[in-house]
Design brief:
With 172 residues, this protein is an alpha+beta fold. The protein has one domain. Residues 112-118 and 124-130 have low confidence and may be disordered. Strand 2 (92-93) and strand 3 (100-101) form a beta hairpin. The protein has helices at residues 2-48, 73-76; strands at residues 67-70, 92-93, 100-101, 109-110, 133-134, 139-145, 155-160, 165-169. The strands form two sheets. Strands 1, 4, 5, 6, 7 and 8 form a six-stranded antiparallel beta sheet that branches. A two-stranded antiparallel sheet has the order 2-3. The radius of gyration is 19 Å and the shape is elongated.
Length: 172
Amino acid sequence: MVTVSIIGILAAIAVPSYQYSQAKAKVFEAKANLAALFSAEASVSLDQGSYSACLADIGFTPVVRYYSIGFNASDLATLLVCGPKGDVSCMNTFAGGAAVACSAGTLVSATLSVGGAVPTLDSGDSTSNLLNTITRTTFKAEAVGQISSTGTSSDTWTIDHTNTLSNVTQGY
């Protein structure tokens, strides 16, 4: 009986620690994908004179399992702030200075549900405080994931055009 009690106490201590370690390991997905997105955006900006929300068209192919990564497409549809002159939608690429619409099936955000609801990319509280946004000269992309079975909030990371990686909300 004493042995069973000791095993129960050890399990009660070990399980939360294991779940925390698992959640911290999953964070690497967000960091790696956001770093790859930064590289793709920096490259296309040098080549085309503007950032683009067409993630697949600019060569960004994330490996997603726990996070949604990218920009909120509903925010981008009406904004005319990209292109070499800053007067066209960010839902284009700009080869040779001409706007070319995102190809069919291109990624604005990448998601994959793993046994639950897919986390959605947040558009922030107001237009001056967007978590994810993009213009001709700046961008801030987002990764949102529910990585902990015990966490009540999503884990949210952002990266911007200066390669600043931030953990906006810790979800574990």
